[in-house]
Structures are given as C-alpha cells and as structure tokens.
Amino acid sequence: ILSSISESSKITTARIDSMETAFNKRIDTLFDDVNKMKADYDKKIENLSAELENLKSKMESNRDLAERTSRLNEILIAGVPYRIEENLRFYFTAICKALMYPESYEPIVCIRRISPNTNSQSSNSKIRVPLIIVQFAMKFDRDEFLGKYFATRKLNLQDLGFNSNNRIYVDESLTKKNQSIKHRAVQLKKNNQLTDVRSINGLIFYQKSVKDRRQPILSIDDLPELNRTSNNIQQQQQQPNYHQSSSTRQETIRNRRQSTSGLQALASTPTAASLQSG
C-alpha cells in the first residue's frame, strides 16, 4: 500500500510539475505576445506622430507661402512722422522723386498707414509711429522701387519736406514667421556670427562668410544658437567712452537712438492679420 501511495504521489507531483511548466510557458508566451503588440503599437504611434508633425509642418509652410505670396507686392516704410491731415500720396511722390524716378512716371500704388496691435501685452504696441504700407499694382514696380532704395539708402525726412535729416527706412512686408527668422538672423549678424542677412521676395537669406553663397532660412531652427560669450564681449566693446565729456556722450546716444528707431519699427512690424487701417 505504501509503495502504491508513493508511486501515486510521484505521478501526481510529475503532473503538477508538468502543468506548472506548461503554465509558465504559456505565461511567457503571453508576455512575449503582449510585448510584441506593445512594440508594434509604439511603432505605429511613432509613425503616426511623425506623419502628423510632417503634415503640420506642411500646413504651416503652405499657410506661410500663401501669406508671403499675398505680400509680394507690398513694402513697408518706417520713420515718417504721423500727421492728422497728412497726404500719403504726396509722401510717396516725394520719395519717388528722391529715388530719381522720371517725372513722367510714378508706380500705381495703394498707400495707407497701418496701426500696431493695440494689445498691451504685445511688443508691437511699442511702435510709436504707425508704419506706412504701400501695395504696388505690379510686382515689377515693387522690385524696381526696392532696388532704387537699396542702391542708395539715403532717404531722409528732408526729402518729404520735414525739417529733419532723420532716415526713412524701407523694407519688404514679411510674414510673422519670417519676421522672427530675420530678427534672430540680425542678432547673429550683430554678434559677428553671420556676415549678411537680407530678405528676397519674403524669404530670409544669410551668409556665414563672404565666401559662402546666400542660403535661404526656411525655419528658425536652421540658424545657429546665439553665442552669448561673443555677444558679451561685443557689448563690452560698445560701452560708451566715459573719458568723453557728458555733452558728447549724450549727443552720441541721441544720434544712435535716432538712427535705429526706424529699424526697430520695421523689426517689430505686426503680421497682416493684426494690421488695422490707420
């Protein structure tokens, strides 16, 4: 009897061990299947996320292209003081004369003041003088106008009849995206990390050195990071000379502010969506 019980116990133990082994194998297989499914779904989610980001990027590019295309015939003029009863057409005619246009020809344009965003939290609200936007009937005329301006860069308020020789600044009308790109690129140029920055048909181009070809900047991420160390050194080099007399330093600061006010206005130009007729 004892022998029979012992044999039965061994058989039972063997069956239990076999069942445990089979159960463990099934658990391991189940875990493997779950991990494989998880990896597959993670890969699918990763691919979908990449496709979504790609689609989002394309939509933003198409939106920027559409807005940039709508601005191709426009220019912005900064530095012209606002007058309640001003004649913007007279200003434009005077500018054309200063740019040596023939007296018998003047481009067909629509010209108006634009107001900055009234939102107090926007940096655009810091623009004290509303810019002037000029929309040309023909892009060829706009390109010719910009070419004449950039050939001299000598427009000033005396050309418009003001008793001042402060400069007038002209630039392309950029989208919000390209405004941000140009702002960063100009900072890099001031920091001597780029040699040239300019906009061509609404796109921003740059050169790292005079030997390099101009390259378009399609995203602000394409630009290098601002070298803060180099920037600090440059700022130290630009510190005022305190050996100068107080009146000389004040005159230097005043001239610097006058020469940069127009450029700051252009750099802070709001997007077309936020512009309001002045």
Summarize the structure.
By secondary structure, this protein is α+β, with helices and mostly antiparallel strands. It has six helices and eight strands, in the order αβαββαβαβββααβ. Helix content is 51%, strand content 13%.
Question: Could you characterize the architecture of this molecule?
Answer:
By secondary structure, the chain is of the alpha+beta class. The protein has three domains: about 1-70; about 70-115 and about 125-175, Alpha-Beta Plaits (2-Layer Sandwich); about 175-225, no CATH class. The protein has six helices and eight strands, in the order H-E-H-E-E-H-E-H-E-E-E-H-H-E. It has helices at about 1-70, 90-100, 140-150, 175-190, 230-235, 245-265, and strands at about 75-80, 110-115, 130-135, 170, 195-200, 205, 215, 275. The strands form two sheets. The protein has a five-stranded antiparallel beta sheet. The model is unreliable at about 115-125, about 230-235, about 260-265 and about 265-278 (pLDDT under 50).
